[in-house]
Design a protein that fits this description.
Elements (H helix, E strand, L loop, with lengths): L12 H27 L3 H4 L5 H23 L1 H4 L3 H29 L5 E3 L3 E3 L5 E7 L5 E7 L16 E7 L1 H4 L19 E7 L5 H15 L3 E7 L2 H4 L2 H5 L10 E5 L2 E5 L8 H4 L2 H20 L4 H8 L4 H20 L4 E7 L7 H10 L3 E2 L3 H8 L15 H22 L2
Parallel strand pairs: 5-6, 5-7, 7-10, 10-11
Antiparallel strand pairs: 1-2, 3-4, 8-9
Helix pairs in contact: 1-3, 3-5, 7-13, 13-14, 15-16
Length: 421
Amino acid sequence: MTTRSKSKDAIPKKTEIIIKNLGIALMLFALGIMLILFTFSSPYVKRLFDSLESMIIIFLFVTILFGVGFGLFKYNYKIIQNKKEILINLSLLVISLTFSMVLIDVCLFFLLPQNVIEDSKYSWDEPAYVNKTFEVLDLDLSKHLVNYITYERGFKRFSTPDSNKIKILVLGDSFTKAGTVSNGEEYYAYLERNPEIQLFAKGVMGWGTLQEYLFLNETYDSIKPDIIILQFSSNDFINNDYFLEKNSFYHNNEHLRPYLEDNQIVYKDPTKYKLPEVIKRLRITKFLSYKLRTLLMMFRRRTSGTVEDEINEKGEEYLPFAKSVNTTSKIMNMIKSVNPDTKVFAFIFDQRELNTTSSFEKIMKENNIEVIHGVTESVIKHSKDICVYNSDSLHWNKEGHRLAGMVISNYINDYLDKNIK
């Protein structure tokens, strides 16, 4: 039987056991991730595998995690053979892990290009003059190509303002960005069928109502729209309040953003668990953070609940939500005040997750903003017979945009017939 030499440099048995147990823990953690991903049918887990790129990155991450754990378990004694070599071996381990993470980050750089750019006023914005084609997956697993184009300042529609036409500006978040359909297939594209309309459209993923106001206030004079259409999402109530966003898993953008507090615009980062900036900016960090939050949301909803659950159960009796409703109303008033003579319409996107319709309509009434009814209802109604959603179960696909676009364009054209012509 081989015996290990004992010397004053030998590492105690206790340390060897700790390293071995750490290796076991890492392997079990890696296996646990795969078990969760392959056994749960929840739509939140399915969202983790929303693309081939996601599957590749998750596979690489789990493989590296399992490999490190196996190495610690199998070769723990060699790693910590004596005090003189332990720092060298641990340093090599750290360097190997760092190299692996950098390699994944480089892969992400090519597989998952940045969709937004940093901006000092809005915190982030859509890049201008983008023209890219990519494949998207619908909820029924059908695939199709999307040609996504942006123009000046990240507009989805922009041209030199024509004083002889009725200028309509559409503002919103990712649903107006419409990254799941090609240009010309978005809901607002149906307004362009009216030759008397000149369309301007701007949507940025994750933007709240205050960011939309800031953008409108800065660009209004260059367009001077006759009509503004605001696309409002139920999660805007969360993004408009620091407390709600900080305590939300799915609707937390984990990015510095402006909030309206005590009638002042302040910039805060709602990230729950903050990392050093150099680590936070890595694509692998952002990618894994999003995937981890998706899983945490699923488990938290099954145990302690979320702020979204509180909003659905208590409505405005839930004080943080009541505060956000008041704040959102103030922002809407600011939007109206940019030019009180400009007609403003609004519609709410999707009420399946958050039941905020009554609060939304109350705010619009307070600020004399006309609500376009029936947009989401039309999409939900037809979802029983046809596929209207992207694979994320949330954003509209081409058919969803068509249904919403028909409702909105009919409503606006009726208004123009009665009030403009």
